[in-house]
């Protein structure tokens, strides 16, 4: 088991390095920021000066290595727009995005797991059929449009919930969370729901398919022959058997959720990483975009690694090899 | 057969049909037999003859689109076919238990053996965790699994096929049931392990004075281990009687064919004989004797469905030609 | 793929009402998009036809101009939706075709050749798969800029891995079969075997993946266009229209964002239903 873990860590590092090279290369090849930073009247000398100041006149691999060295020291460049270190700009917005992402995932699991199980156990019921149609709708809905509809209904028409911003937050262990205040919660619901719907639909379909497959297995009949009630069979045995794929998908989806936060944060003006990066893209603030990509890649690689570990932990067939 | 022995099970006219899109599958069509305490009854026939379905019907474990259409299943004086699911749950595992064919797939792979044994115990008895653990240990010892304490903490995939089957037997016998239904318990095992497993089961049945139905396609096996034998074909019971009667004087042509195909029962001069042809599909069976297409002794009368008739001292066969032979 | 096989396929396919509905919806919307210029009262790209005083008119719900209202620029919303549907479908379908071809070829190559080729291709695919599609597309478009051709390429880059993975799996299974051995024995070259023998036999799972990816591609394009990173605003897709509609949402002009969204959802739902049904019908064939 330890050997496996070490191998995975090594793999992750390699992936990160590859990603950094790819991202850096695309950055390098995609145009010259100097032209955009200076006013059009700038002299050639000023352009050259700025270029050498920013280190943009050196060869590719030197630039990359400099970049890598700085990155490992926590320096990912300075934002052109805010004139602050890009890394800190991103990091201070991570809690906001994570709060949104985690709430969305929790929502989708809390609703999705029981709904999927019910749909598998009682497939002919009216509720189950509606759940399945609903899930189909859920994966066909574009996230951003759903957000707009929710804003339309709950903010514009009904005026119940706010449509932008984060509301009041309270600091917990130095991290600002909006969950703990009523105002914060009101601001959290719509964006979290927007993101949650897609994953919810996915979970429902996955759980139902998985359940149906598990319930066909021999050992289910054997459990019934032992005299276990149908409830026990479903909620203890079948559930644990499908937990493994559910955990895997959820882990993968956490990455997607963070990425989709980009869209949702734009609609709801939620002050997270996503909104920052979109603004930075439009504002041509390259260091911030680069920093975002690297940090998010780091998060994904770490998440994938975590999911792998949890997966091996959950499935005794793999754990005890 | 001891007339004073208690009848554990009486099945009368059991009919279990499956209502599929392609038609009605009469998986079990009017099957009746009795079982007394201390007896091992062999239910033998080819794959698909309806033997396993009979076993599942007794426990009420028939999933839709199948259901028990008719018949009575009298167990210890009560008709199981008329019982509610809640009542059946209490009986399963406690008074009637089942051993499954494929030990590979009959245990939940994500829970330990210990958990699964204790679960069976706790489902029917109010005992503490410590007591359950102790009993589980004892059970593993009874079925001959060494170092039980440690093995309880292991998972099914860490056991060999034979060991897994023993665990299945342990679970089946955990609560001293009056009836054990063993569905092809040794088919998925090596020949050498087969004998071990069945000997074990027979010993346990005699020890606890319970009863067992041994479902198998291997007539040699029932000849070795059973007291009485029922032969099934295409969902119907075609012959029943004591072991001696069936093995030494089989009356139905199908049974005769089965016996003849056992290696070693023929004189050395004769070649091994297989019954030609295949069992028909159970959807829309034609009228008349289902064995007709493959029967070497068929006559015109066989176009009408034969019923079980007595041919002497409890030996019965469903064949118009059986009296004559 | 012969005539009787196709008929068998159709017989089974039409058993499901939802599948038929999906197919019908998809077909209807595709035709609407194709004939957009013929059925729209206005050409929304023609700036000479737009007048600002016509902006943000409420839907009239009557046939003719401004049936569905107008957007912030005075465009007839119905026409804009039809043309937008066209763009969305064009991007979705062309990126699917490109990624399917490229991905399948890569997958067959990896599966058939094995060894180093397989390891390299699959390693790249695995790394790419560990990142969400939207992020990859975001990276590409943010650094490349808006553009119709660019977004098609970006989405193709995102999707090729799915085809590659499926194709590789199927190829591995096919490789062990007898007809491949006989082809080799007869002296066919590797590339000929891959293209002429293996490829036709793995079409079914590719189609299945394809229908899933088309829906995803359409959503991906619309999301990127919504963020301003997709098609240019001169040729708005449904996503761009929704963005513009969002700008005026708070003034109460709901139609310019809701209605294009309905069209978008319609096509995605149609493709999903169609794909679901195709998957069910093609599945037993996969097991053969």
Oligomer: heterotrimer
Percent of residues in helices of chain C comes to: over 70%
Mean pLDDT of chain B, nearest integer? 82
Q: H/E element string of chain C? A: HHHHHHHHHHHH
> Can you name the CATH architecture of the largest domain in chain B?
3-Layer(aba) Sandwich
What is the end-to-end distance of chain C? Answer: 14 Å
Mean pLDDT of chain C: 82
Q: Quick one: biggest sheet of chain B?
A: 8 strands, mixed
How many E strands of chain B? 12
H/E topology pattern of chain B: EEEHEEHEHHHHEHEHEEHHEE
Which homologous superfamily in CATH is the superfamily of the largest domain in chain B?
Answer: P-loop containing nucleotide triphosphate hydrolases
Strand order, sheet with most strands of chain B: 6-7-8-3-9-10-12-11
What key attributes describe this structure?
heterotrimer, A: 321 residues, mainly alpha, two-stranded antiparallel ribbon, 13 helices, C: 288 residues, 74% helix
Question: How would you characterize the overall build of this protein?
Answer:
The complex is a heterotrimer of chains A (321), B (325) and C (288). Chain A is an all-alpha fold and 321 residues long. In chain A, strand 1 and strand 2 form a beta hairpin. The longest helix of chain A is centred in the C-terminal third of the chain and has 39 residues. With 325 residues, chain B is α/β, with parallel strands linked by helices. Chain B has two domains: 191 residues, Rossmann fold, CATH 3.40.50; 68 residues, no CATH class. In chain B, the strands form two sheets. In chain B, strands 6-7-8-3-9-10-12-11 form an eight-stranded mixed β-sheet, sandwiched between helices. In chain B, strands 2-1-4-5 form a four-stranded antiparallel β-sheet. In chain B, helix 3 packs across helix 4, helix 4 crosses helix 6 and helix 6 packs parallel to helix 7. The model of chain B has no long low-confidence stretch (mean pLDDT 82). Chain C is mainly alpha-helical and 288 residues long. In chain C, helix 4 packs antiparallel against helix 5. The chains are: A mainly alpha (321), B alpha/beta (325), C mainly alpha (288). Chains in contact: A-B, A-C.
């Amino acid at each position: 088991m330890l050997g496996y873990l070490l191998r995975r860590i090594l793999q992750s590092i390699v992936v990160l390095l590859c990603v950094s090279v790819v991202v850096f290369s695309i950055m390098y090849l995609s145009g010259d920021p100097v032209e955009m930073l200076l006013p059009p009247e700038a002299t050639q000398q000023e352009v050259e000066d700025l270029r050498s100041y920013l280190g943009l006149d050196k060869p590719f691999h030197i630039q990359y290595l400099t970049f890598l060295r700085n990155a490992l020291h926590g320096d990912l460049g300075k934002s052109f727009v805010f004139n602050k270190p890009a890394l800190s700009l991103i990091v201070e917005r991570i809690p906001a995005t994570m709060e949104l992402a985690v709430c969305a995932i929790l929502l989708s699991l809390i609703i999705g797991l029981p709904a999927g199980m019910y749909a598998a156990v009682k497939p002919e019921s009216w509720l189950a059929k509606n759940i399945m149609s609903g899930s189909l709708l859920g994966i066909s809905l574009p996230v951003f449009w759903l957000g707009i509809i929710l804003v339309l209904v709950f903010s514009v028409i009904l005026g119940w919930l706010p449509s932008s911003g984060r509301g009041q937050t309270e600091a917990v262990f130095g991290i600002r969370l909006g969950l703990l205040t009523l105002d914060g919660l009101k601001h959290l619901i719509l964006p979290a729901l927007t993101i949650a719907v897609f994953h919810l639909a996915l979970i429902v379909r996955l759980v139902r398919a998985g359940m149906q497959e598990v319930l066909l297995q021999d050992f289910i009949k054997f459990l019934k022959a032992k005299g276990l009630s149908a409830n026990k069979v479903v909620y203890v045995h079948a559930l644990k058997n499908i937990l493994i794929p559910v955990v895997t998908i959820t882990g993968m989806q956490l990455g997607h959720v963070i990425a989709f936060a980009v869209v949702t944060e734009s609609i709801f003006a939620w002050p997270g990483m996503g909104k920052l990066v979109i603004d930075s893209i439009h504002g041509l603030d390259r260091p911030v975009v680069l920093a975002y990509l690297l940090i998010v890649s780091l998060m994904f690689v770490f998440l994938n690694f975590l999911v792998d570990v949890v997966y091996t932990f959950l499935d005794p067939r793999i754990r005890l090899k | 057969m001891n007339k004073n022995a208690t009848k554990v099970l009486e099945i009368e006219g059991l009919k279990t049909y499956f209502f599929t899109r392609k038609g009605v599958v009469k998986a079990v069509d009017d099957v009746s037999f009795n079982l007394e305490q201390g007896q091992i009854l062999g239910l033998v026939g080819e794959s698909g003859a309806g033997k396993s379905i009979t076993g599942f019907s007794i426990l009420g474990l028939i999933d839709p689109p199948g259901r028990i259409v008719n018949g009575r299943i009298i167990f210890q004086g009560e008709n199981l076919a008329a019982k509610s699911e809640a009542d059946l749950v209490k009986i399963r595992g406690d008074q009637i238990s089942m051993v499954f064919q494929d030990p590979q797939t009959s245990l939940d792979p994500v829970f330990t053996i210990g958990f699964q044994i204790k679960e069976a115990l706790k489902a029917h008895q109010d005992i503490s965790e410590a007591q359950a653990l102790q009993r589980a240990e004892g059970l593993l010892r009874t079925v001959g699994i060494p170092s039980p304490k440690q093995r309880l903490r292991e998972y099914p995939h860490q056991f060999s096929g034979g060991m897994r089957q023993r665990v299945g037997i342990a679970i089946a016998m955990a609560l001293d049931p009056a009836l054990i239904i063993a569905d092809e318990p040794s088919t998925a095992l090596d020949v050498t392990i087969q004998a071990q497993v069945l000997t074990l089961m027979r010993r346990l049945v005699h020890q606890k004075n319970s009863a067992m139905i041994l479902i198998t396609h291997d007539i040699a096996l029932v000849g070795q281990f059973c007291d009485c034998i029922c032969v099934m074909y295409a969902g119907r019971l075609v012959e029943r009687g004591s072991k001696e009667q069936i093995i030494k004087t089989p009356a139905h042509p199908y049974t005769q064919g089965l016996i003849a195909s056992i290696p070693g029962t023929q004189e050395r001069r004769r070649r091994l004989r297989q019954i030609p042809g295949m069992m028909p599909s159970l959807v829309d069976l034609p009228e008349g004797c289902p064995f007709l297409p493959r029967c070497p002794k068929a006559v015109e009368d066989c176009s009408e469905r034969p019923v079980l008739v007595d041919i002497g001292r409890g030996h019965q066969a469903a064949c118009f030609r059986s009296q004559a032979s | 793929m012969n005539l009787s096989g196709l008929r068998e396929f159709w017989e089974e396919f039409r058993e499901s009402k939802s599948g038929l509905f999906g197919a019908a919806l998809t077909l209807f919307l595709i035709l609407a998009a194709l004939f957009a210029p013929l059925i729209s009262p206005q050409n929304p790209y023609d700036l000479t036809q737009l007048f600002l005083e016509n902006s943000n008119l409420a839907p009239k719900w009557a046939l003719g101009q401004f049936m569905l209202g107008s957007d912030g620029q005075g465009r007839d919303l119905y026409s804009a939706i039809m043309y937008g549907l066209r763009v969305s479908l064009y991007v979705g379908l062309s990126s699917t075709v490109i990624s399917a071809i490229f991905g399948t070829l890569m997958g067959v190559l990896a599966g058939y050749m094995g060894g180093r080729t397989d390891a390299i291709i699959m390693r790249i695919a695995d790394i790419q798969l560990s990142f969400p599609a939207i992020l990859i597309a975001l990276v590409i478009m943010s650094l490349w800029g808006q553009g119709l051709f660019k977004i098609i390429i970006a989405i193709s880059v995102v999707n090729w891995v799915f085809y590659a993975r499926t194709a590789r799996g199927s190829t591995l299974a096919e490789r062990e079969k007898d007809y491949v051995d006989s082809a080799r024995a007869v002296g066919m070259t590797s590339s000929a075997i891959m293209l002429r023998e293996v490829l036709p036999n793995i079409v079914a799972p590719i189609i299945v993946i394809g229908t899933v990816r088309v829906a995803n591609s359409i959503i991906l394009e619309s999301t990127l266009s919504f963020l301003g990173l997709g098609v240019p605003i001169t040729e708005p897709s449904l996503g761009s229209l929704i963005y513009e509609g969002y700008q005026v949402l708070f003034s109460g002009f709901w139609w310019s964002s809701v209605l294009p969204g309905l069209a978008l959802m319609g096509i995605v739902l149609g493709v999903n239903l169609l794909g679901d049904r195709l998957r069910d019908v093609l599945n037993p064939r996969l097991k053969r």
